[in-house]
User: Fold this.
Amino acid sequence: MIRPTPLILMVLAAAAGGALFPVSFEVGALDDRLAQLNRQIRDDREAIHVLRAEWSFLNQPARLEELARRHLDLKPVAGAQIAGTGAIPVRAVATPSEAADGSEPSATAIVRVAAPRAKPAIPDLRPTYSAPPPAARADLVRTLDDVLRDVTEAQGAGAVR
Amino acid sequence: MTRRIAFESTKKQAIETARTRLLIGGALMAAAFVVVGARLFDVVVFNENEELRRATAREIARPAPMARADIVDRNGVLLATSLTTASLYADPRKISDAAESARRIVEVLPDLSEEVVAARLASGRSFVWLHRNLTPRQQFEVNRLGIPGLEFKREERRVYPHGRLATHVVGFTDVDNVGLAGIEQSMDSAIAGARAPLRLSLDIRVQQILRQELAAQIEKFKAIGGGGIVLDVRTGEVVALVSLPDFDPNAAGEASDETRFNRITLGVYELGSVFKIFNHAIALETGAATMASRYDATKPIRIARFTISDFHPEKRWLSVPEIFQHSSNIGSAKMAIDIGSEIQRKYLGHLGLLRRTSIELPEQAQPMFPAQWREINTMTIAFGHGIAVSPLHLASGVAAVVNGGILRPATLIRNDGAPNDGVQVFSAETSDRMRRLLRLVVETGTGRNADAEGYLVGGKTGTAEKQVNGAYKRNALISSFMGVFPVSDPRFAVFAMLDEPKGIPESYGYATGGWTGAPVVRGVVARMAPLYGIAPLDDEAPEIRQLVSVNALARSAGRNRSDAAN
Assistant:
C-alpha cells in the first residue's frame, strides 16, 4: 500500500515528464525549421543580390536609350521646351461664349494660352512681357493659383465621371 | 529486564541513527531545492534578457559576411558587387588516378588544359586550385563526375554590371578580390569586409552622356583617344569621368595597357590655350592687367630661338577681353610678363597645378613644369605650353576660377554634407570677370560650337601640338574645350579632349578645340542640364546680360567713374 504523498509526487513527476517530452520534441522540430528558414533566407538573399546585379545590368543607360528609341516616341528635352511657372501668362476669366452661358471656364483654355511660338520659353522671361494688352486688362483677375486649381478640379471631375 | 532494556536501547539507538540520517538527507534535499529555487528566481527575475540574447545570438537570419562592399553611384545605381560562386579545388593525395581524373575534368571544363590539371593532380600537395568561379551548371557537371578528392569552396566574385561605362573610376580586382585599379584599389581597405555600399559622386547617366558624345566625336575626327570630365564646381565632386578607349572590368586581365590608361588623371598634357583662363585670372587678380588694358599684338614675339605667334592673327592692339576672345598667344605672353614669373608660379601652385591632385584614384600623375622658371617659360605657360598637367588638374583649377575663387579638392566620393574645405585663391570679383570672359568666347569667339542654347555655357578652347621625343609634332594635336555652365551661377565644369584628331571636310580641315571638344561639351550640357533641374535662361534678357556680358561690366564701370567724377 503506497502512501498518498509519494503517489502524488510520482503522478506529478510523470505528468511533468509527459508534458516536457512533446515540448522537447517541438523544440527540436522548431530548431530544424529555424535552420531551414535561415538557409532559405540566405539563398533568397543571394538570389536578391544576383537580381540586383542583373537589374543594374539591364538598366545600363545605353540599353535603356536603345529601348526608348525603339519603343517610345520621345526625344531628349531641349532647353527651349522648358519654361518656369512665372512664364505662364495670366488668363482671362472666360471666353465670351462661356461668359454667356455662365459656365465655368474649362481647363483646356490653358492649352490655348500656352501655345508655343518659335522660341516659347525664352521671351516670356522678360519683365516687359508681363504687361498685357490694355483691352484684356479688365478680365485679368485670375492668378496662376486659379489656373492650377482649375486643372486639378477638371482632373478630379473627370475621375468622378 | 536487562534484555528488554538492552533491546529498548538498541531500538532507540537505531531510531536515533535513522532520524539523524533522515535529517541529513532532508537537509541535503532542502539545500538542493533552495539552490534550484534560487536559480529559478535568478533566471526568471534577473536574467530574462539573457535567455533572449542567447536565443537570438544563434545565426538567425543573419546575412552571410561579404568579402567586399558594393560600389554604387551617387543615386544608388550598382556599379560593382560581389556574387557568390563555387571554386573547384582538389586534394591530390586523395586522387587515385591523376591522368584519368584530369581527362574527365577537362571534358566538363573545356577551358582548362589537360596537362596542367594532370600535373597539379599528381603534385602530391594537399591543396591545388583547379578552376575559380564556376557557374552553377559547371558545378553540377563536376559533381556528377563523382571523383573523390575534388572539393568546392564558396567564393565571391566581383561583378561590374555597367561594364566599361565607369571602368576607369571603379577599377577592378584580381581573382582573390584585391583591388588592382581605380577606387577598388585606392579604397581597398574601406571596401574589403565592409557591408555598407561605397557611394561615389559619379552619376551613371551623365557618365553615359559624356562617353557617348566623346565616342561619337572620336569616331568623327579619327582620333586615337579622348577624355572628358564633369565636375561640380561648388563641391569638387566628379560627376562623370571618361577616358577612351576603355576596357571591360569584367575581363580586365585581357585589357591592353593602352585601354587601361586613364587620360584624365594619369595623362599629363600641354593643354594649350585653355591655360589662358589661369593667365587672365592671375593678371586680373594681381592687378597686372585690368579689363581695359591693351596689348600690342601686331607682330609675333621673338625671344631666344622661339617665336610666339597667333593662330588667328588680328595684327593690332588688343584689349584684355579681346586677347581672350581671339585666343591671342602674343597678348597672353605679354600679360604674363606683366604678372611676373614668381607670381605666376605662386598662383599656379595655389591652384594645385604643380602637385598631384588629391582624388581617390591610384592612377595619378605629377605635373611637369620647368625646374628653372625663366621668362620664356612664363611666356609659354601663359598659353599652356611648357607645362603639362592632367585634365583633372585643369578642370579643378577652372572650377576654382568660376565658383567665386575657391579651390576645392576634386573627389570621387559623394559628399552629403558641407563640401570639403576650400582655399580662396581668387576674389569673387575676379571670378565674376572670368565668367564673363568665358561667356564671351562662346558667344563670339572660338567656342561658339559649345553654345547649348539657354544654358549659358562659357568656356575656352585649347589646341596644342603633342611633344614626341622633345619635338612638337605638327599634326598630332591635343585639342580640347574647357566649359562651365550656367555662367550666371556656375554649377558644373565640363571638359572634353581629343587625342590626335584629324581635320575633316565638315570642319574645313581643322581639328582645333572649337571643332572637336566644344560640340562634346554642348551635347553634354544640353542633355545633363534637365537631369539636374537647371532651367534654361534667356541670354538676351537685360538682367542676364547684366550678369554675363563683358560690355555690361564696362558700362557699369563707366557709370561708376562718372559717378565718382560728379
